[in-house]
Amino acid sequence: MFARLEPPLQPSSDDARRQLEHELSKPKYGDRRTLLQKLMDWLNERLADLTDGAGSLPPLWLGLVLIMLAALIGLGLTRIRRRQGPERGSDHDVDEVIFSELDADELRAAGDRALADGDTALAHVQYFRALARRGVDRTIVSARPGATAHEVANELSHAFPDRRADIDAAARTFDEVRYGGRVPPRPVVEAMRDLDASLARSRPAHPAVTR
Fold first, then answer.
1. Same domain assignment for residues 116 and 166
2. Is 18 within a domain?
3. Tens of pLDDT along 64-87?
4. By residue range, what is the domain housing residue 48?
5. d(CA 86, CA 149)
6. Which residues, at least 6 apart from 186, have a Cβ–Cβ distance to it below 8 Å?
7. C or N: which end of the chain has fewer Cβ atoms within 10 Å?
8. Which burial class, exposed, middle or buried, applies to 138 when counting CB atoms under 10 A from its CB (0-12, 13-18, 19+)?
9. What are the tens digits of pLDDT across the range 163-207?
10. pTM value?
């Protein structure tokens, strides 16, 4: 009634090797080395070719090899830094990131140009820098070393408590853009621009900061 089942065939060692080679030759098992690994392997092969039968490497070739090795190491470090991403705002000094040699009006003009070009990320950064610089000029913000955008926002909020929510949002977006790579939508950038203009016309509710 039932067909007789044959036991599974056991391939010979040669057949098994050929089947394995055939399987590994499929695209899904392709070369998965990184670009840096491939370059290093290529360099090792060239170095072996040059030294085969020669006993030593000529000084000129040795210099070229060292230069290539240095370039490859630099490339590898650059790729690692990019994968790790930028540092967070709490680790950056305000005088290195927020302030520049430009005054508030120049920073605002730079923001206007960036916004006109469609670069909303740069525009927001420049508008926030203008806001911070204007705060320093009015002795509302202290440009002490190690301060962050959040701390700048706290000082501005102390002077303009009714705008605390807007100021905090502006500082938060600054960090997201500057350190997280966020591209803010145009309405957010326009709100940042309007906040700078509004505070420039407003009278602080509290005395200036102590230097």
1. yes
2. no
3. 666 776 676 666 655 544 444 444
4. 33-84
5. 16
6. 115, 120
7. N
8. middle
9. 999 999 999 999 999 899 999 999 999 999 999 999 999 999 876
10. 0.55
